[in-house]
């Protein structure tokens, strides 16, 4: 086990993670043979600074602002005593796939050079944000809800925060205190984080300490400078295979992968083994949940040794199919083009 960075608490073994500065990406092969959920030990970590260690017994969540009737604080045990809900939801960084702007489109974008591993699906348990907001009373003039993290301020931009419109906050947002049946791990927001289905990962504020309900639109660096034009994630697909995986020639292989989209359910996944000249439909297996992902598989019997490229493309409920090229984006968000996954077919 190699602890490659001190900003993340959990071990980051090389076979499961690629470390990028203060963040860590899950390798594609880390989901191979796994069930529907991403185990906590291999879930990607995106930290702006570093994981804080918070004592749940003294932790408080402040809920206040001009849009609230009775501002108050909640303790950990109080939250855990409230009615809970459980959801299977993906969290994906808006920058997932950014590396391919450079490697596939010769248009490198600055920022963490994620492959496709800045995504994970977990079973989150906690309290609906709307139930908490109902406890404090929301005024009809409420416009935005601003959740803020307790981690150290990021450069000169202050604490990580990202406003949600009141409509989304009162819809399907969860204040999660459990991840896959365990108390939230430190790196994923202990004691409490937001989980915002379908939206870019930054909305799912970790180490939540403060929720402010405002009666006018809120401007923060996280909706003006960064992530300004991004809310829902587009469709993406990944193989559960190592980059440059080696497969023996001759046999029949069952290749696995997953597709997901913040815009809705995945309705079709196709795979090409010939650089996009022809496509074959993959078969779905397992659950098929909106705001999570769709596991699929396809058979392949490679007939020659040497370098090959695998391509997978998904179509989501909005009718949009992953394109071959993603338009330039100055911050490298939302790379949704088909990723060309290299592998080597070798003599068995
Ligand atoms: N407080 C706080 N919340 C945060 C962040 C952060 O740095 N600080 N990073 C955000 C970003 S950009 C992403 S993609 C997700 C990543 O969640 P994870 O680290 O649990 O995978 O958390 C979000 N919430
Ligand atoms: Mo992110």
TrEMBL record:
Residues 48-222 form the Oxidoreductase molybdopterin-binding domain. Residues 255-323 form the Moybdenum cofactor oxidoreductase dimerisation domain. It comes from the Bacteria. Its cofactor is Mo-molybdopterin. Pfam families: Mo-co_dimer (PF03404), Oxidored_molyb (PF00174). The keyword Oxidoreductase applies. Keywords: Metal-binding, Molybdenum, Oxidoreductase. SUPFAM superfamilies: E set domains, Oxidoreductase molybdopterin-binding domain. This is Sulfite oxidase. The keyword Oxidoreductase applies. Gene3D superfamilies: 2.60.40.650, Oxidoreductase, molybdopterin-binding domain.
